[in-house]
Design a protein that fits this description.
extended; 4-stranded antiparallel β-sheet; alpha+beta
């Protein structure tokens, strides 16, 4: 033991001792890592991208006090902002558009908020709207603004939830929906038919209201109430028309969210206990299937809650415009115009290049088109572009490939009659001086001989020469083919392609440009020019030799 003690003491004497201030190990890397984490935290805090800032923004947006419709006569009408309160639990139907219940499918959480004081917040105030005409009942009166018992309707979320910091328009509207239960669309806690909000305005978003059945107590009254106005003092069942299930909340299934304790919301159907002898009663002729039904469970009962005074209707908020096809189209048009007077020419070239790379000449898949628009710099979300494509009259745009020309025609809009007539006159005069055998095509020689590019926008506002402006036009008309050999010398009069390879002018025979393609060239320019006088003067100057005789 003494020898061991002496050896240990000698080892300690020989060991280098460090003071508490000495840094050992990879202290330089650890210090740099801590500084990087701190800088990243400060950056996210300042720009609002941190988790805490996101949570604060979410709570502020969802808990914003919003207008609440006041109804003097208690009647519920289309367009009203109402709160749906569950009778059994007192919970208010609420939504969370930031919490997906099915990842990647744009289906967001719906729950029952157990607030002590019921206030009209953005997340628990819904608007009653009409379904699309194809989903309305055959006897619906479109001029009647009152909601009736048994009439189909939609419940949309409040517009305040659709405001985003990176867009000048509202997000697409979200509708209260439900769908038939399966292994993927059931609630996570109780395994019932899921209720959620979604941008899909289809049959899954259609609801009706009925008087709850109380067995023999209210059978005839329940039948006669069909078609009566819905009022805020009625206990009603909110029925999903597609699946015939009732909306409800489970007071025994509580969950903790960022908003506090909430109840799981779903669609279900069950009856209260008791026997009625339905078949015997119908056999004796005392009742029918509509006047005598099993009593519904009390958990399916709801009330429409309206405002307490006219002051609840007052709103001072300034919301962006809704995401209608017209507003989205205007947003895209404004961005393309902001790229310059040649914005639509550049967009056409960008889309056509993408189509050629994918071996689809003049056509693009919907997803590819959305990706190319984003790549072009269009600051709009892809889901908005879906709304735009759905509104096109092109039969292939909804399911298959999108024609680039058709999309650009839809995007830029129609030419005014005066501009079209001028272009038609120019084209007809070009045909009269063209040497082609076809009476509907203009040759490249006729274009070169009569084109004057001094007032062309690419020359005036850009850095093009008159020869390059002519080259730009011939390339658009596909009268200049881009050569494959990038080392090839100039073939003719210095008409080089914009990509740096040699251009080869193709003339003679039946090669030429038609009326539609000629108009397309100037229509792309016309979409970026609002001044009629400037456009008309510019076109006349471009083709001055054709008008010299006048």
């Amino acid at each position: 033991k003494n020898k061991l003690k002496k050896s240990s003491n000698s080892i300690m004497k020989q060991t280098v001792k460090f003071s508490p201030m000495t840094r050992i190990g990879n202290w330089q890397e650890e210090l740099a890592l801590e500084e990087a984490k701190l800088e990243n935290f400060k950056k996210k805090t300042n720009d609002g991208s941190g988790n805490w800032k996101k949570l604060q923004a979410k709570l502020s947006q969802c808990n914003e006090i919003v207008p609440h419709t006041y109804s003097p006569d208690g009647v519920i009408r289309f367009g009203d902002y109402v709160i749906l309160q569950h009778d059994s639990s007192g919970a208010a139907l609420s939504c969370d558009p930031f919490e997906e219940v099915m990842i990647g499918q744009e289906k967001y959480m719906v729950s029952g908020a157990c607030d002590e004081v019921l206030k009209p917040k953005a997340r628990n105030t819904f608007r009653i709207t009409r379904p699309p005409p194809s989903l309305c009942a055959f006897n619906d009166d479109q001029s009647d603004t009152v909601l009736h018992i048994g009439q189909p309707f939609l419940l949309t979320c409040n517009e305040a939830l659709l405001v985003t910091a990176d867009s000048n328009i509202l997000s697409p509207m979200l509708y209260l929906c439900s769908t038939k239960k399966n292994e993927r669309t059931s609630t996570k806690r109780t395994n019932h038919q899921m209720a959620y909000i979604s941008p899909n305005n289809d049959a899954d978003a259609v609801w009706t209201v009925v008087i709850p059945s109380r067995g023999r107590t209210n059978g005839p009254e329940r039948l006669l109430a069909m078609g009566a106005p819905v009022t805020n003092d009625l206990a009603l069942q909110i029925t999903h028309r597609q699946t015939n299930m009732y909306l409800t909340c489970d007071a025994g299934s509580k969950m903790i969210t960022e908003f506090g304790v909430e109840l799981e919301c779903f669609a279900d159907r069950s009856s209260a206990n008791g026997k009625l002898g339905l078949m015997v009663s119908e056999f004796k002729g005392l009742s029918t299937s509509q006047t005598l039904t099993k009593p519904d469970a009390p958990v399916f009962s709801w009330h429409f809650v309206t405002g307490k005074s006219t002051s609840d209707n007052i709103s001072e908020r300034q919301l962006p415009p809704p995401a209608t096809p017209e507003v989205i189209l205007q947003e895209v048009q404004d961005f393309v115009r902001s790229r310059g007077i040649d914005g639509f020419w550049c967009l056409r070239d960008h889309l056509n290049q993408a189509a050629r790379k994918m071996f689809r000449v003049g056509k693009l898949d919907r997803e590819d088109l959305k990706a190319m628009l984003v790549d072009f710099g269009v600051k709009i979300r892809p889901k908005y572009i879906d709304i735009l494509l759905d509104n096109m009259n092109d039969g292939n745009s909804k399911t298959g490939l999108v024609h680039v020309d058709s999309f650009l025609d839809f995007l830029r809009g129609r030419l005014s009659p005066s501009r079209y007539d001028l272009l038609k006159t120019v084209f007809n005069r070009l045909i009269s001086v063209s040497q082609l055998s076809s009476s509907s095509l203009v040759s490249a020689d006729a274009i070169r001989d009569n084109f004057r590019g001094d007032d062309h926008p690419l020359v005036v506002f850009g850095s093009y020469s008159t020869a390059e402006a002519l080259k730009h036009m011939l390339t658009f008309f596909e009268l200049v083919k881009v050569g494959r050999d990038r080392e090839e010398k100039k073939e003719r009069e210095g008409f080089n392609s914009t990509g740096g390879s040699t251009g080869r002018v193709v003339t003679g025979g039946a090669v030429g440009v038609g009326m539609e393609r000629f108009v397309d060239y100037y229509a792309d320019l016309s979409a970026a020019v609002d001044d009629d006088d400037y456009f008309m003067g510019m076109v006349g100057s471009n083709w001055a030799p054709l008008f010299e005789q006048e």
